[in-house]
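Exam review. A common question shows you a sequence with its structure tokens and asks you to describe the fold in words. Practice with the pair below. Do the first one on your own.
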Amino acid sequence: MTVTDTPDLECTAVCKDFGQVRAVDNVSFQIPKGSFFSILGPSGCGKTTLMRMIAGFEDPSSGDIEIKGKSVLNTPPNKRNVKMVFQHLALFPMMNVYENIAYGLRCVGTDKATIDQKVKDVLERIALPDVGNREVHQLSGGQKQRIAIARCMVLDPDVLLLDEPLGALDLKLREAMKIELKLLQHQFNTTFIYITHDQSEALVMSDHVAIMNEGRFEQIGRPEELYHAPKTAFVAGFVGDSNRWSGKVSAVEGGKAKVTTDAGLQMLCQKRDGSDLSAGQSVNIYVRPEFIAAKRADTGAAGDLNAIRGKVDSVLFNGANSRVLVRGPSGELIEADVVVTGSDSDLRAGDDVALSWSDQQTMCFAT
């Protein structure tokens, strides 16, 4: 590996044990320079423990962590060129914006003229050039977020760690800050490592996402890869919305598997690359709501492969992203995305419907 392609961060076989509990289990990954990399997983999966090891607040039980090609295992947190933004931002309320941003520079002995220039430059880059004299309590939630990032970025870190930084914001501001964070990452061209349990945050902002479950990385890939080509049942169920059925493979032929669900439905799915399905095997099937066509029940035949008759239980109106909840033959609720136009042709609660979808959109995983 040459100097130019040395990753900003590399973890190799990193493990962390707390007594008999293994919180992080053999995690390895590389992050190239200037990337927005997210670690996505449910609460308690080990993602914050992994971030704390990268920052130096925890020591790995085994494995290695390299920043810019150099191991930092014996380097204390204040000597690593890594900065961290927490959920509650930790801005100093007794200092104004300028003093908050300048604090780290003063701690390392930077002269006043350089501090003035660096603070001015970083405020320009976060599009808040005139707030230096404001008190922290005078800032909006989004402005506080940007100041917390500016306070880190003024120190020119190799890696910026963000631990669920949008969690304390209201929904509308969180949606706006997703775009802001991505723009800021491009502005500074610094590697951002983002920890979250919110899949929409990870998918919208990231160049690559690692899905973490029970201390391990299940899959690392671009957001569209994780969504359309999950490699495990956990990733298929965790990333995006999915309908799920359990069943058994009744036949495998021509690269396709026929499955009989526990409710007696017949489904057909294409075998994924590397999958090894065989007759009699127990499987879980996942189908995303946007790939299910929902039509009135006078179209489509009951009993067809990947076709279900049911009754609309309710309609969840959300403009172009509206959805129907359909009660299937065995009482299960099936979700399908629909377009609601406001006309008489719209599906409504109580309507009999036929649902159908392609075998190409039917994800099948051995249990």
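Now try the second one, then compare your answer with the model answer below.
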Amino acid sequence: MLTVSQLGCARGGCQILTGIEFQLRSGEVLAVLGTNGAGKSTLLATLSGELSHPEGDIKLAGRPLAAWPAAQRARRLAVLPQSSSLAFAFSVEEVVLLGRLPHAAGHDEDRRVVAEVMHATDIDHLRQRSYLALSGGERQRVHLARVLAQIWDAAEPACLLLDEPTASLDLAHQRLILQSAREIARRGNAVLLVLHDLNLAACYADRLLMLDRGCVAALGTPWEVLQAERIQQVFGVEVEVARHPRLDCPLIIA
């Protein structure tokens, strides 16, 4: 779905990413891990086309990312950045409807999709509230619903990029959002998300991409990546890796 080859990117004259290579597959949730400053958000911004990359290639569905017309790309690639701002007193429903702008599906279809994504992100009860009156966690879920609406009914497999989608959320809504990501992947789409919580990544992602100082430190299943020695090397923290009592995934104990 998304193929990255020898990707390099600089910001402010400083090299941030070097030699990044991986594939994001249809039907997969891939979590990107790493310390602050490892290059996670820079990677996502580059994959979305927000940042240019003088080195390497990015292909979406086998086609260079830069070769996609904007409207077509918007129907196949949706992005939730680390922070989203809105200065107008739109209602929650109006904000979510913005995700339907790349489509020409008609009023009834747009309303159906909006209703479904609002339910998936647990914001039905906020439908008529002003966006400006919401808490930080509520705003986060509204913007997630907006990007979900962008690809919810995609005719072909789409790609969803989420930068720290669980930030500002309580435990219940963290679980809800990550379950929604899994549902998006189950439909044949591809999901890449940046996470700080290693245990959430282990529970919900099919594969993990661990970055260290702008390079790939590890890529593989949670069991392959989340090894105690590697975590200590990358994060500088001694941990114990155990088996989750209910799931077939590692449990990281600091």
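Model answer, second protein: The chain has one domain: 2-253. The mean pLDDT is 90. Full marks require stating both points clearly.
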